[in-house]
Design goal:
- The complex is a heterodimer of chains A (about 120) and B (about 900).
- Chain A is about 55% helix and about 15% strand.
- Chain A is built from 4 helices and 5 strands.
- Chain A has a 3-stranded antiparallel β-sheet with strand order 2-5-4. Chain A has a two-stranded parallel ribbon with strand order 1-3.
- The radius of gyration of chain A is 16 Å and the shape is elongated.
- Chain B has about 900 residues and is of the alpha+beta class.
- In chain B, the strands form 3 sheets. In chain B, strands 2-3-8-5-7-6 form a 6-stranded mixed barrel.
- Classes of the chains: A alpha+beta (about 120), B alpha+beta (about 900).
- The interface of A and B includes residues 35, 50, 62 and 79 of A.
């Protein structure tokens, strides 16, 4: 069910990159599919304006973490621009993941000092 | 512009991708039950700001860098367009500087740097002999007999040949002969140069034998003018001074050979005017067995091609060892080692003499160019100061340093680009001028063309100009403190004091360079005027001279030579308007020649005196209006008498103060009686003291080449055609090598001095104009900036003259300092060129005063308008203006 706009949480630019990379790890996808995937996976909590996706995608292409290619859709007679994760992208994803974990752990320690992570 | 198409392709691709996304989203919305229109709207809403997205994507790809560059260029163009006066003068200034530099560099490139236009021309050499008793250390064309031995014994050469430049009269049908430059050579010349004829054949060894030598090879241009590119010209006959000669070959259009002035077998001889470019090759017939071992120097030039890998030193050593052998084996005079040989590259022989002059020219032109750039820098500094606020705002808004510098560069790049384009046009025109007014011996002038190297040089100059003129303003831009700038109000720009000082001292620098140039130019100009107007001892006005030579069949007989001279003189005197006509055996103002020894008969023990021997006719001295000192000049009766007329200087050397008239001397193998003494005159050269000359009547050993002179009541130019007629009436097949007025000959003999003066004066004047433009610019800017201050002064009671004085004083200091420094350095430069000056001291008060006067007037003129503007500032307006 679509949530109200006020319920949606804004995304930082860096995290959007990480989410895109993670989405593409599941397989090549075009821009619209990536947007839909993120939206559905987070159950609409994360507000991803479709427009902000594309600068992020092109930025990632420029940095060599993903590649793009115009290909025919498997079931239709239509072409879409498909993005794929590169080897460097995979490494970058792993790095971002660990950075994210570190950050959340640090924040959690500040917020809830009593609870210790095992 | 690959990036441009890449950009539009990217644009299309992004459009496509985003459209695709919107379509997919719309489809999805439709599946949720929305109508197609509603679905599209929903998709767009969900997408967000499409334009913003596109921009973000674009900026990811860094297109904006290029767009920024373009944007700044367009802005620069617009701001230049708003200031057409500034842009115009800047472009003109750069065009002058770049144009002049390009023209001179083209000459230097084509003449000095490019190898000669022959295959592997680095191996082509000229071999000289050195015979101390004849010419001291000077290079001499070798004795052909020696060269023959060299050919047989030296292993360093692929081949050696002999060449001799000359000019002959050539006729096609029955028309009068035209003068054609010829090169007499041994049959192997073309082999050595590795040139193959375009048509027909080259020379073979059989062509060098007397009787079988009536063959000729034409250059392309001669073939064009005689036969109109007719391929059947081979085998046809032309006449060279009455001898039929068969054309056996035509050379390719690219063939060039140095003319007689460039390759001189006697290096101390004077270059002549009117020397034709070689247009024909003739086989040389040399009877070596009849030649002396110890003579015949300075008539031929030995050209050779070194074997690959052989160095000049090797070749020279070989030749010198052969010379030593020759000294032992043959009757060559002088002590051991007195006959030497030297080898130099052919290119050096051709261009060596002109190198200093050309490099000097390059130096002068570079100075001019620098002054032009200084001017531009100054002007740009002024504009930078005026726009300081603008720049401060930009910097405050976060403009990158690089972008600011690019802004400063962009304008200058455009100016330099346009300046270089116009400059190239100037250069082409300048080269044309150079070809017409150049002195007689710039070698290879026909090879001077604009080419790729020169074009790259011009572009390089434009870039240097850009950098030079942007450096100072850019540095100022970087050093502006944005905060300070923004706090100041209006026209009182920060650092204007320092800025003005910097600019006025640049003016001082320009004045310095200018003054030095003008001073040296002034000295040369005074020299030239002196040379023209000195008391020469003869009067060249209203006189024409014609050089004529009989065809060879008539030339051999003394009687026919005498008859020719007699009849031509008669014809000349019959021309209406002719007051006097005469003959002499050498062209006036072409140096000393035919040196003979003169001895007093009554004092046989006394040493002989070396004089120039000349053959003259009655009427010669009357034509030239030389002064009679004692005795009389030639009359008709002297043809059977053994009379001689001596110049004053010769008489002084032989007789002191005694009167020589009536005494006898021995000259040219017989005794002559002195009938008269003629005053010293500069008929051999305007640049050296009067030469010693002895004149005999042409009846005794009449000269082969004759120079007829005629004085007319009217203009000498109208006499020229008549002189030709007079000569051809006596001998229709005589070759007339030259006909010109004596004034023209005088001019030509001073060609180098005229050229030097012209160029230096042109540069000096250009530099002056530039400096004045600069002064005007600086003062205008300063007045504009100081409007408030001036307004206040006027309001407080300053008078107009006071304001004028104030404005003038602003540049006064640097101008005077520059003037002083320039005069001093000019005087120093004058010492360096002292031996090129005639009739003037190095420190010459009139010249110095003239230069100072010129400067003061120009500076005043340049400063006048801005000063006037300052004086007419309305104080009320100025004080209100913020």
């Amino acid at each position: 069910m679509p949530k109200q706009p006020s319920d949606r949480i804004e995304l930082l630019q860096g995290t959007l990159d990480m989410l895109i990379l993670r989405t593409l790890r599941l397989g090549p996808a075009h821009g619209h599919a990536i947007a839909r995937h993120i939206q559905q996976s987070t159950d609409d909590v994360l507000q991803v304006e479709h427009g902000s996706l594309y600068p992020a995608l092109h930025r990632l292409v420029k940095r060599g973490w993903i590649t793009s290619k115009w290909e025919k859709a498997p079931d239709r007679n239509r072409e879409h621009k498909y993005y794929r994760l590169t080897v460097a992208g995979k490494k970058q994803l792993a790095a971002e993941e660990s950075k994210w974990r570190q950050m959340t752990r640090a924040i959690a320690r500040v917020m809830w000092p009593a609870e210790q992570e095992p | 512009m690959r990036w441009f198409s890449r950009k539009s392709r990217r644009e299309e691709e992004i459009d496509r991708e985003l459209r695709d996304h919107l379509d997919l989203e719309a489809e999805e919305q439709q599946e949720h039950g929305l109508s197609p229109d509603e679905a599209r709207h929903a998709a767009r809403r969900k997408f967000g700001n499409i334009t913003y997205t596109k921009e973000e994507v674009r900026s990811t790809w860094g297109w904006t860098r290029w767009e920024f560059l373009l944007q700044d260029l367009r802005y620069a163009l617009r701001s230049l367009g708003k200031n057409p006066g500034f842009a115009g003068t800047a472009i003109l200034t750069l065009a002058l500087g770049i144009g002049a530099s390009t023209a001179v560099f083209t000459v230097i490139d084509s003449v000095l740097l490019r190898p000669l236009a022959y295959h592997e021309s680095g191996r082509l050499v000229v071999a000289w002999e050195h015979v101390p008793w004849l010419s001291g250390g000077d290079s001499l064309g070798p004795n052909p007999r020696h060269v023959d031995i060299w050919q047989k014994r030296a292993t360093a050469f692929d081949g050696l040949t002999l060449v001799q430049n000359s000019a002959r009269g050539v006729t096609m049908d029955e028309d009068h002969p035209r003068l054609v430059g010829t090169v007499s050579c041994l049959p192997n010349l073309l082999e050595i140069l590795e040139v193959r004829p375009l048509l027909g054949r080259g020379f073979q060894s059989g062509d060098g034998v007397a009787g079988r030598d009536n063959v000729a090879i034409l250059t392309y241009s001669l073939w064009q003018s005689l036969f109109h590119v007719d391929p059947d010209a081979i085998g046809k006959t032309i006449r060279i001074e009455d001898t039929p000669v068969k054309v056996i070959g035509v050379l390719p259009a690219s063939f060039q050979f140095p003319n007689a002035n460039v390759l001189r077998p006697f290096s101390s001889s004077q270059p002549k005017s009117g020397v034709p470019e070689p247009a024909m090759l003739l086989p040389a017939v040399l009877n070596l067995s009849q030649m002396a071992w110890d003579g015949n120097y300075g008539n031929w030039i030995a050209l050779g091609r070194l074997k690959p890998g052989v160095s000049l030193e090797e070749a020279e050593t070989q030749l010198n060892s052969i010379q030593a052998q020759l000294m032992k084996e043959t009757p060559v005079s002088g002590g051991p080692g007195s006959l030497r040989a030297s080898v130099e590259p052919m290119q050096e022989a051709v261009v060596g003499d002109s190198r200093t002059g050309l490099l000097l020219l390059m130096g002068a032109v570079v100075i001019l160019m620098l002054i032009a750039c200084l001017n531009l820098a100054n002007a740009q500094l002024g504009r930078a100061l005026a726009r300081q606020r603008d720049a401060a705002v930009r910097a405050a808004l976060g403009a990158a340093r690089g972008r600011l510098i690019w802004c400063a560069l962009a304008e200058n790049l455009i100016l330099a680009g346009l300046g270089a384009t116009v400059g190239l046009l100037f250069a082409t025109a300048g080269l044309d001028l150079l070809r017409r007014y150049s002195p007689v011996n710039i070698p290879r002038l026909s090879e001077v063309h604009l080419n790729l190297t020169v074009f790259l040089f011009t572009v390089g100059l434009a870039l240097i100009a850009t950098v030079l003129s942007s450096v100072l303003p850019a540095l100022r831009l970087l050093s502006t403190d944005a905060q300070e700038c923004l706090q100041q109000n209006g026209t009182r720009a920060v650092g204007s004091r320092q800025g003005s000082r910097l600019r006025t001292s640049l003016i001082g620098l320009q004045v310095f360079g200018c003054t030095a140039l003008l001073l040296v130019a002034g000295l040369f100009a005074k020299s030239l005027l002196y040379l023209f107007h000195q008391d020469k001892g003869f009067d060249p006005g209203h006189v024409a001279v014609a050089q004529a030579q009989l065809p060879s069949n008539l030339l051999r007989e003394e009687q026919s030579r005498i008859a020719f001279i007699d009849s031509t003189l008669e014809n000349l005197r019959a021309i209406p308007g002719v007051q006097a006509a005469g003959l002499v055996s050498a062209m006036p103002l072409e140096g000393e020649s035919w040196i003979e020894s003169v001895r007093r008969v009554d004092k046989p023990g006394q040493e002989g005196l070396l004089v120039n021997a000349r053959w003259a006719s009655p009427g010669y001295f009357e034509v030239t209006r030389q002064r009679l000192v004692a005795g009389r000049f030639f009359e008709e009766r002297d043809r059977d008498l053994e009379s001689v007329v001596l110049s004053e200087g010769s008489v002084k050397a032989l007789w002191g103060t005694e009167n020589p008239v009536g005494s006898q001397i021995s000259l040219l193998g017989r005794t002559h009686t002195v009938i008269g003494v003629v005053a010293d005159s500069q008929t051999t050269s305007l640049k050296t003291p009067p030469a010693r000359i002895a004149y005999v009547h042409y009846h005794y050993r009449p000269p082969y080449t004759t120079f007829f002179l005629a004085r007319s009541a009217g203009s000498a130019r109208e006499l020229l055609a008549g002189m030709r007629q007079a000569v051809w009436k006596s001998a229709p097949h005589a070759t007339i090598a030259r006909v010109k007025t004596l004034d023209a000959q005088l001019s030509d003999s001073l060609a180098i001095e005229r050229f030097r003066t012209f160029v230096l004066t042109a540069f000096g004047v250009s530099a002056l104009l530039l400096a004045m433009l600069g002064t005007y610019g600086v003062l205008s800017c300063s007045v504009a900036m100081r409007k408030q201050e001036i307004g206040v002064r006027i309001a407080l009671g300053a008078t107009r003259p006071r304001i004028y004085a104030l404005t003038f004083a602003e540049v006064g200091g640097p101008v005077f300092i520059g003037l002083g420094a320039g005069l001093v350095s000019g005087a120093l430069a004058g010492h360096v060129i002292e031996n090129l000056l005639y009739g003037t001291e190095v420190v010459d008060p009139p010249v110095i005063l003239a230069v100072i006067g010129l400067f003061l007037v120009s500076a005043a003129a340049a400063a006048f308008l801005p000063a006037r503007r300052a004086a007419h500032v309305d104080p009320m307006v100025a004080l209100r203006y913020e």
